[in-house]
Write a structure and sequence with these properties.
single chain, about 140 residues, four-stranded antiparallel beta sheet, three-stranded antiparallel beta sheet, about 20% helix, extended
C-alpha cells in the first residue's frame, strides 16, 4: 500500500512538472524579422526560414522541437525538407510595407509534435474520355 501511494505521488509530481513546462519557459528562443516590401496587402503569405541560418545563430537549434510565435500567439508551422534545404514554413498576413517579428522557441534536445488544423485538401484523379474547356473537364 505504501509503495502504491509513493508511485501515485511520483506520477502526480511528474504530471505537474510536465504541465508546468507547457508555459514554454524552458525553451530557448530566436527572433526572426520578416517584411512585406511591397505596397500591397499580402494574405496568407508563405514565410520560409532556413534551418541552417537558425543554426548559424545558435548551433543548438533543434528542428525537431520548435514552435513559432507572433507576439504571444502560436503560429501553425511545419518543417519542410526537400532533401537539399530544410526550412520552417508558415503563412501569415502582411499589410503593405509591414514588418513583423516571429519568435521561434525550441528545446535543445528531444522532439516536440504539434498537431494543427489542416488548411488544405487535394485529390488527384485521372479523367478519361473528357474534354477540357473553360478551366473544367467534362464528359460531353
Amino acid at each position: 500500500m505504501k509503495k502504491n501511494v509513493m508511485q501515485i505521488t511520483l506520477l502526480i509530481f511528474l504530471s505537474v512538472s510536465i504541465y508546468g513546462q507547457s508555459n514554454f519557459t524552458f525553451y530557448k528562443a530566436i527572433n526572426v524579422d520578416a517584411k512585406n516590401e511591397s505596397n500591397i496587402e499580402r494574405i496568407n503569405e508563405l514565410v520560409s526560414i532556413n534551418v541552417n541560418k537558425l543554426k548559424s545563430i545558435n548551433e543548438n537549434f533543434n528542428k525537431d522541437a520548435y514552435i513559432v510565435f507572433e507576439n504571444e500567439e502560436e503560429i501553425p508551422s511545419q518543417l519542410y525538407n526537400d532533401g537539399f534545404d530544410c526550412s520552417i514554413i508558415f503563412v501569415t498576413n502582411f499589410l503593405p510595407n509591414q514588418s513583423k517579428v516571429f519568435t521561434i522557441k525550441y528545446l535543445e534536445n528531444g522532439k516536440l509534435r504539434r498537431d494543427y488544423k489542416s488548411r488544405t485538401y487535394a485529390e488527384l484523379a485521372m479523367k478519361f474520355n473528357s474534354t477540357y474547356s473553360d478551366k473544367k473537364f467534362s464528359n460531353e
